[in-house]
Amino acid sequence: MTEPQRTRIAVLDDWQQVAQSCADWTPLQARADVEFIASPFNGEDDAAKRLADFDIVLAVRERTPFPASLSSRLPKLKMFGMTGARAALIDVAAMIDRGVTVCYTGGGPSGATTAEMALGLLLAAARRIPQGDAAVRAGRFQSGVPVGFLLGGKTIGVIGLGRIGALMARYCRALDMRVLAWSQNLTDEKATAAGAQRVTKEELLASSDVVSLHLVLSDRTRGVIGTADLARMKSGAILVNTARAALVDEAALIEAVQSGRIFAALDVFTVEPLPAGHPLTRAPNTVLTPHLGYSALEVYEEYYRHSVENALAFLDGKPIRVLSKGQ
Questions:
Q1: If you count Cβ atoms within 10 Å of the first and of the last residue's Cβ in the chain, which end, N or C, has fewer?
Q2: Tens of pLDDT, residues 142-160
């Protein structure tokens, strides 16, 4: 009599190779074959081929896209786990329609880590920290390092004054910056509570030395910063984006940074990983980080602890943290 085949579990998107050290996987490994996949897939066909024999997929949000066209090609998929509860690149409804149980995790302190990343990018761009680091390593010290500027007394425009945007506003107030804010639903009361002044988008762009984006991506916010908006920004101003790349018209942004008119400090990109040789990598007035906003140890520990718990509960027939359509 043949033994039943063991459940196969794929842990995806471990690009920083931290998954195994951030949680105790031994209870799950005792009951299933767990494979950790550290490299990005080479497109949807590659993902479909490599995941075809897995029963459970545990993915990190905003890394591998999971449209319906991919999940429909995974015949053995019974459970899909994602970090966090919302991911624009994952078609949750399509999987639920196929009878796949979709589970989520807590987000840990990802709001604070993303706001801190935005502040770090701002400081790096304003004081030319990457160029200074490169110069020291090359033996040039200050030679060839552009002069930065003081943030105290300058104006930051925060677009999206939710949880993360409000933290960014607080950090910048501590630097003695004036804070302007705009979003489509922002009220004077909410802006005042965050220590900001509500203004129009046009006034914010024209008046700010720094613009920092903190909107949720939706049909209404996609491309909210376009060619005309970038043209309104001050010459030499810094655009910080730790939210979603699609908030900004990428072609217009590339043109603006290539011309040297503005700086861009970016943690998110239209295609991730960002292809080698992409125009943004060749523009000298950019600071680029590889989507590290939520990628802090404390966040990963909650992501992976919950992922293990979710998979074990599913194997027990009592799934937890289950998403339903419309959530």
A1: N
A2: 999 999 999 999 999 999 9
The answer to whether the CB of 252 falls within 8 A of the CB of 139 is: no
Active site residue 61: no
How would residue 88 be classed by pLDDT, with cut points 50, 70 and 90?
Answer: confident
Q: Select which of 203, 272, 301, 321 is catalytic.
A: 272
| Contact between 157 and 200 (Cβ < 8 Å) | no
CA–CA separation, 147 vs 125, rounded Å?
A: 11
pLDDT at position 155 is 98
As a whole number of angstroms, the distance between CA 124 and CA 102 comes to 39
Task: Say if residue 273 is preceded by a cis peptide, omega within 30 of 0.
Answer: yes
Among the options 214, 244, 302, 306, which is catalytic?
Answer: 244
Q: Which helix (H) or strand (E) holds 263?
A: strand 263-266
The model's pTM is 0.94
Distances in whole angstroms, Cα of residue 6 to Cα of each of 267, 307, 319 = 39, 19, 19
Rounded Cα gap, residues 38 and 87, in angstroms = 20
> Which helix or strand (DSSP H or E) is residue 200 part of?
none
Among 214, 291, 306, 309, the one annotated catalytic:
291
183 and 212 Cβ atoms separated by less than 8 Å: no
Res 255 pLDDT > 90: yes
Confidence class for position 1, pLDDT limits 50, 70, 90: very low
Confidence of residue 327 (pLDDT cuts 50, 70, 90): low
Dihedral sign, Cα of residue 15, residue 16, residue 22, residue 27: positive
Is 244 a known active-site residue? yes
Q: How many alpha carbons fall within 13 Å on the CB side of residue 226?
A: 5
Q: Which among 184, 190, 182, 243 is positioned nearest to 208, based on CA atoms?
A: 182
pLDDT digits (tens, 9 = 90+) for 72-85: 999 999 999 999 98
d(CA 35, CA 236): 47
